[in-house]
Design a protein that fits this description.
The complex is a heterodimer of chains A (about 70) and B (about 400). Chain A is an all-beta fold and about 70 residues long. In chain A, about 0% of the residues lie in helices and about 25% in strands. The two termini of chain A are about 20 Å apart. The chains are: A mainly beta (about 70), B alpha/beta (about 400).
Amino acid sequence: MRRVTPAEIAVVDLAVCDRCGLCLPLCPPESIHLELNVLTVDGTTCTGCEKCVGPCPVGALAMVANA
Amino acid sequence: MPDLDVLVVGGGPAGAVAAWQAKEAAPELEVALLERDRAVGSPVRCAEGVGDAGLREFATPEGADWAARKITRVIFLAPDDTEVKVAERDVGWVLDRTRFDAHLAAQAATAKAEVLVGTEATGMTRAADGRWHVRVKHRGAEEIYRARVVIGADGVEAMVGRWAGLDTRVPARDMESCAQYVLQGINCDPDAIYLQFGDRIAPGGYAWIFPRGIGVANVGLGLVALKTDGRNARAYLDDWVARRYPTAARTGFTVGGVIVHTTIKRTYADGVMIAGDAAHMINPLSGGGIVNAMKAGRLAGCTAAAAIREGDTSEKRLASYHKAWMDLLGDDHLKHYRIKQALEDLDDSFFNGLARTVNGIPPEKRSLGRIFAHALVKHPQLIPVAARFFL
């Protein structure tokens, strides 16, 4: 479990995501999952590090305020 | 089905060859190959280029429906578009991966391995009986498959490794973000692959043209996001294509990640081996992974067969797979990685100058050794690169 609640977390836009899986090994807490052709980011473990956002070839990941 | 000797997760080149070789080495074993998608070989996330010699260890390209184009030349394009032709011999092939992957899976099926499409592994746990219990989803139903050995050939996602407690993560600087179009009606040498470097074209990587036929090619690029101006790979590719082929028809688009690192520290655990992209078995200089994956698949399949016959699938026994891979190619990749790091310090003006130096050597005398020797004399910036090669 993360120790500090991040101000922002990553979210995926499934209308843009191509399901290539590139972001999975980039995620330090392994919060991104791809199952049955749907990519999900676990907002409860995402640390807000943003490492997944820039490398997405189609720009499907973005940071949003952590509600 | 649920009781297996070898369960291979992922029906790409690593997995198909692993299943094929395991069954061929030990026909008495129950071997299954799982493919998540509804067809092996689809979607294609690959530039589809492969070297001739490595390919021939596994398949014969002449006359094969999966060989799209024979390649006899490599043309490097400097950042300023200066062309440098380097080789003129049996360089390689551009594959039709949809057909090629199906061909390899058919080899596994002919050897009597079970090939299951539309079948996805979603988790696994080590049970008290010493087997892996793998959760498998197929047509909406979930089943548990028990296996003595699981081979993880599940590509860049590398979930099998994660489930087995191995570290398959990669730093962002070693991830190439790739995008590619299939372009129709373009004017390029159909017997050559083109590679272009440049900080404004594909920072940290390169752009490519791999012909699939006359006037048809895979046109794509890979870049390192940390080195870009903030735009993603697709945006860089759109710029490059708009400049080179503004009128071409785009009949295909794909994206994907290529890990340009070195083999993961441990590719094995009790009853588990990881092969291909999942274990980062990619040449970090070229980004090529197809032949590496097949070679690793063969090692993993044969190791699984031998270990099961000996009745010992422990981590200690399967360590021989890791050692065999490192001896075969893994140690070379460490060297390639050091060269990649050294090349990162060189800029566009260096590559433009190097292109002119090489073009000053007559084509018939353009051996790699001679290019290297000339380049070292005229471009002292290369000395640290050479030094890293011999470290």
